[in-house]
Design goal:
Number of domains: 1
Number of strands: 0
Structural class: mainly alpha
Strand content: under 5%
CATH topology: Tetracycline Repressor, domain 2
Distance between the termini: 65 Å
CATH architecture: Orthogonal Bundle
Radius of gyration: 19 Å
Helix content: over 70%
CATH superfamily: Tetracycline Repressor, domain 2
Largest sheet: none
Order of helices and strands: HHHHHHHHHH
Shape: elongated
């Protein structure tokens, strides 16, 4: 019985991953407004009804993709900030980690570029506050350790997140994406010359 349960769980995970991958591709090609559940299912080898075992509708799978993308971006950025040992590294390495993440996978970049408005609407209610709160916490910790100069943490975290999101949207529309240029520009806004 344990082997059957293990196989069933692997199948469920594989089905969910296939649906998410198909949805990312469809949303990247068609955009949220034009995409449908039918478009997503057609990109998989699964029966149409299987989609609804995992997601109740198009919005829920879109939200899952935004949450998954946001969580991984925050994880990478936070790791870069926590490894930093200078104000310059704290700012530059975090921006670079974010810009690299959104540009490294063409399918992810297409998903983000094609759906910026829809993502912004959903991101502002969930992912953006999470990222801002994490940055504020990391700023407070770095200031307490003497690794960052004192700043208004609330203003600084909000501004840094806003700059990263806006430049990130512009970065993924460039061909090729200029990660170092975006990193220098964003960092220059927050670091002394």
């Amino acid at each position: 019985m344990t082997a059957a349960v293990g196989r069933r769980e692997r199948t469920k995970a594989a089905n969910r991953d296939a649906i998410l991958a198909a949805a990312r591709a469809v949303f990247g090609e068609l955009g949220y407004g034009a995409a449908s559940v039918r478009h997503i299912v057609r990109r998989t080898d699964l029966a149409a009804g299987t989609f609804y075992n995992y997601f109740p509708d198009k919005e829920s799978i879109f939200r899952a993709l935004v949450a998954e993308t946001g969580a991984e971006a925050r994880r990478r950025v936070r790791a870069a900030r926590r490894a930093a040992r200078s104000p310059r590294a704290f700012v530059e390495d975090a921006y670079r980690a974010y810009f690299e993440f959104i540009a490294e996978d063409p399918e992810r970049a297409a998903f983000l570029a094609r759906n910026a408005g829809a993502i912004r609407a959903m991101f502002d209610e969930s992912e953006r506050p999470a990222g801002t709160d994490e940055l504020a916490e990391d700023l407070r910790d770095a200031i307490a350790r003497g690794e960052m100069p004192p700043v208004d943490v609330d203003y600084c975290a909000g501004a840094m997140i806003a700059v990263g999101l806006e430049l990130g949207e512009r970065l993924i529309r460039r061909d090729p994406p200029d990660i170092e240029g975006a990193t220098r520009f964003a960092s220059g806004l927050f670091l002394p010359a």
